[in-house]
Amino acid sequence: MRIRRSLIDLDDLTAEELAYIFERTGQFEREPPGPLLAGKACVNMFFEESTRTFTSFHLAELQLGANVVDLVPKNLSLATKGESLEDTAITLGALGICVLVVRHSEPGFPQRMALAFDGHVINAGDGVHAHPTQALLDIYTLIEEFGELRGRTVAIVGDVLHSRVAHSTIRGLSRLGASIVLVGPEAFLPSTYAGGQVSVERDLDAVLPNADAVVLLRIQRERFVEIPISDREYIDRFRLDRRRLALLRKEAIIMHPGPYNRGVELDDSVLEFAGWRYARQVQHGVAVRMAVLDLLVNARQ
Ligand code: ASP
Ligand code: CP
Hints:
- This protein is an alpha/beta fold.
- Helix content is 40%, strand content 15%.
- A five-stranded parallel sheet has the order 7-6-5-8-9, covered by helices on one side. It has a four-stranded parallel sheet with strand order 2-1-3-4, with helices on both faces.
- α1 (15-30) crosses α12 (278-299).
- The two termini are 18 Å apart.
- The model has no long low-confidence stretch (mean pLDDT 96).
- It binds aspartic acid and phosphoric acid mono(formamide)ester.
- Phosphoric acid mono(formamide)ester (CP) binds next to α2.
């Protein structure tokens, strides 16, 4: 279900709104915006750990002149006093909160919040479901590099099944006409992902020479009990290392949503590769999130 005032996943955005976000991101990076959220209150509720998303949302809100409250989950009455999610949303609405930024390990938690809250909810990552602002900043990084994405090939490598970033990025890239090649072991990448512009491959060495961009994923160990593949096998088949870097085109780029685990999905040679764009992705995070806040609060009616 699409809740117009909120951003739960990229499907919530029309093509015009996607274009608006990317245009505003560029503007905000060239020239810091004025206080577009002056007098508005934003609450950041991160029930799961975060370094990049939390910090960049907080900075984005401050730069837009908002009043910012960071709620510590264990201090919420929701945690210990039996208050429901819905009643928490009603309470925050009564306090005049304009935007809730929510991260939670349960898929659908931000959506439920959005249904009960009389303001804007932004999904900052919910379980294996979606992480729309990360996908937006990743796609913005690709557009900055290549311009038009139609006809470009993006390989996404690793634990696709448990990656909310991959799920949102696949949705976004499909809409923009890119070809998406998913690479990973069966346990992290069922063949059912294939369809439309998305193909599933098992042999990373065969995929690398044709990729314009490679997006590496962390194994989301917190999302399953039994690790379905040994570290040795994973490294042998899927780690990007010096030998595999040599298979890439000279102008190919490598991305990672972070946090990356050195020695698992990549080795140190990747961090020295000319096309390693991780820092660029992180840098875009603040402006992309300012653009999303501006869209929801000021532009969408
Ligand atoms: N930080 C991203 C997320 O929260 C990706 C990851 O944790 O691997 O989904
Ligand atoms: N990419 C990302 O969501 O990072 P954090 O988990 O540190 O926010």
